[in-house]
What we know:
Layout: H1 4-7, H2 12-15, E1 25-30, H3 37-41, E2 47-51, H4 61-76, E3 83-87, H5 96-103, E4 110-113, H6 119-136, E5 143-148, H7 151-155, H8 157-161, E6 167-172, H9 174-178, H10 188-205, E7 208-210, H11 220-232, E8 238-240, H12 246-252, H13 257-273, E9 278-280, E10 283-285, H14 287-300
Parallel strand pairs: 1-2, 1-8, 2-3, 3-4, 4-5, 5-6, 6-7
Antiparallel strand pairs: 9-10
Helix pairs in contact: 4-5, 13-14
Amino acid sequence: MRRAGVWRGLSSNTLRAVRNPFVRSKLFVPGARAELFPKALASAADAVSFDLEDAVRGEDKALARAQVADALRRAAALPNHPLLIVRINPLGSPAFQADLHAVLQPGLAWINLPKVGSAADVRRAVAALQKAEAAAGLAQPVGLLVNIETATALQHATEIGAAHTRVVGLQLGLGDLFEPLGIARGDVANVHAAMFALRLAAGAAGVFAFDSAYPDLNDEAGFRAEAQMARRLGFVGKSCVHPRQVAAANEVFSPSSDELAYARRVVDAAQAAGRGAFALDGRMVDAPFVQRAQALLAAAR
């Protein structure tokens, strides 16, 4: 199932209204590895994120930039393609402006902005993005998926998420967050604490939360368990660093048939009750539960 058409024609005001995108899986592909692009684009991933930042050496960035720009043009011409994202280099880096101007192709949906520390960083990035869009003659605005990957960013995540209507979501970066602080990535309690903090911040900002990548390619059980924890916390999807992780992410973040059946019953019962609170199967149901049921049904559609 591809959603490319859903993301076309979004105005700047509409970008913020996309609260729960059906992006269960986001597959990273190194920008310097053009031979991997066709496989990534043909995968079952809901989104493909070309990486110009950490996955590309400094001496390869110009080549990667050109390859990604070409891949975006080719992918946008396809009748059916995943959501297209590019992780560019950080604001203030030598490659930032060059990345921005290269990747602003008609098929690009979001820019993944790394190393953000404040709301002011977001606003500066948006100003640069707007100028680059005008220079490229793009009519449709590009959204920002902002990485939260430092202690400072996590502390200010709500302000970062609410900094501009271009911000569609906050993405957790556990490697960059944990490693400099000596926090054990393998401790589930540590991961849960970071996820919970980010999810609350994203909720307060009115944007979605997207989960971090799982580095152990051979630990499918660990990937699935972490994805399940993220979904229970209200994250919409998970980053994947290999195509073999995509199927598990899609499965975990898809509503089950039982969930959908119950959601339909909640919505139907709310319509029949005609009041704010009512009982269903011996449980009290009111507006937040109805809204959650409606969101699940919308995702399924």
